[in-house]
Design brief:
This protein has 363 residues and is of the alpha/beta class. It has two domains: 4-142, 3-Layer(aba) Sandwich (Rossmann fold), CATH 3.40.50.720; 146-319 and 344-362, Dihydrodipicolinate Reductase, domain 2, CATH 3.30.360.10. The protein is built from ten helices and 15 strands. Strands 14-13-12-11-7-10-9-8-15 form a nine-stranded mixed sheet, with helices on one face. Strands 3-2-1-4-5-6 form a six-stranded parallel sheet. The longest helix has 18 residues, at 190-207. The radius of gyration is 22 Å and the shape is globular. Bound molecules: nicotinamide-adenine-dinucleotide.
Length: 363
């Protein structure tokens, strides 16, 4: 299987065909992680819009956009972009600004790439899906975790016959949930909504749809552990490890098959424990496995000025933007960051929002 990570990357100016792009939002994340991806994507950045005109101008100078706006409707009408990138934030009431901006961009005839969260409710995601189907415009959410090279490779391992059937999947991610009484309040839930997209995307990408779940929660830090059953029959756990040290790697993923398993630690260290030949218990003098069943370890080197050891690639930022651009340019369906994936993540969000600790619910 050939992933983006195993192919050669082209520089922006080397593409023959580039998409006419507008960008809504000149904020911190966009500056650090989204505008810089265009160096490696078929994108012609025509115009930038931010409510703060000075920021839009500063970004335009830095990233080479021709014009700036403080009103997105004006920009869409004047520029008629092929695609719109949206990286905005939350309204005062906790609603997601990008949801309505995406509707406006599609109404103006553009395909949309937007940061997560797609929306603050499952219903709004379903409305976007209906809009996308009606208009034939693609709407993609940046589910970057599904583009991490280590996570893509883990998916390949899970799909390989030697791994067996995925039997269990465990994800750890540090995130608090407020007390149940506060969970109807989108402002109190903003941090949770913002972050559930990350472990939620991993669980859906690797394990498929979740059928039922329950969880336990501690008021000490807001940490929780959920037990999950996937439709496939696999079981899983989501440990939302609020309270862990801020100096530690955030995440760990463990996928277990039948006599074989693999771990992604810190997003970029993958260990594949292949099916082993077990020596006789109590008699084996060596722990060394023959080469064909030895563990495989993948991790980037940090010596060369390469692309693969840059966070633009290890964290999936360029690959997720390329996935969108290629779907538009080649008229192909999106397979990742889809609205269907966002619906599944919103089911998980609703589960935590409305379920008491200790109860089992069908999602
Ligand atoms: N995937 C990731 O790694 C990752 C990391 C951090 C943040 N994010 C996501 O990125 C988004 C932005 O986060 P941030 O911290 O950069 O926020 P931010 O507040 O720094 O930036 C948001 C910008 O959007 C602008 N904006 C809002 N409404 C607008 C409108 N109608 N028209 C034009 N501009 C408008 C604001 O003026 C602001 O400059 C969030 O959705 C967040 O979840 C993703």
């Amino acid at each position: 299987m050939l992933h983006h990570t195993q192919r050669e990357i082209r520089y922006n100016f080397e593409y023959d065909r580039r998409l006419r792009a507008c960008f809504i939002g000149a904020g911190g994340h966009a500056y650090r992680n989204v505008y810089p991806t265009f160096r490696y994507a078929p994108v012609d950045l025509i115009a930038i819009c931010d409510l703060d005109a000075a920021r839009a101008k500063g970004f335009a100078r830095t990233f080479g956009a021709e014009r700036t706006y403080a009103d997105h409707a004006e920009m869409l009408a004047a520029e008629k972009p092929d695609v719109v990138f949206i990286v905005t934030s939350y309204d005062q009431d906790g609603r997601v600004q990008a949801t309505r901006l995406a509707r406006d961009a599609v109404a103006a005839g553009a395909h949309v790439w937007m940061e997560k969260p797609t929306a603050a409710s499952r219903q709004e995601v379903e409305e976007l899906k209906a809009l996308s189907e009606r208009s034939g415009r693609r709407i993609m959410t940046g589910l970057k975790k599904t583009f991490f090279p280590a996570v893509e490779k883990l998916k390949d391992i899970i799909a390989s016959p030697e791994f067996g059937t995925l039997s269990s999947l465990v994800v750890r991610y540090p995130q608090a949930i407020p007390p149940l009484a506060d969970r109807a309040d989108l402002v109190a839930m903003q941090s949770f909504l913002d972050h559930i997209y990350h472990p939620g995307a991993i669980l859906h990408y690797l394990g498929g749809e979740i059928d039922r779940a329950s969880y336990e929660w501690t008021p000490v830090t807001g940490a929780s552990v959920a037990t999950l059953r996937f439709r496939s029959g696999a079981v899983g756990a989501l440990h939302l490890a609020a309270g862990q040290s801020g100096s530690a790697p955030l995440e760990r993923i463990e996928a277990i098959g039948e006599g074989s398993h693999a771990i992604v630690e810190n997003g970029c260290r993958l260990i594949h424990y292949r099916k082993a030949r077990l020596p006789a218990y109590g008699r084996a003098a060596s722990f060394i496995q023959p080469e064909e069943s030895a563990a495989l370890i993948y991790e980037p080197e940090f010596s060369l000025g390469q692309l693969y050891n840059n966070n633009m690639f290890t964290l999936g930022y360029v690959p997720e933007v390329l996935h969108f651009c290629e779907a538009v340019l080649e008229d192909k369906p999106l397979t990742k960051g889809t609205l269907d994936a966002a619906v599944e993540i919103m089911k998980l969000f609703d589960f935590y929002r409305t379920t008491e600790a200790g109860q089992t619910r069908t999602l």
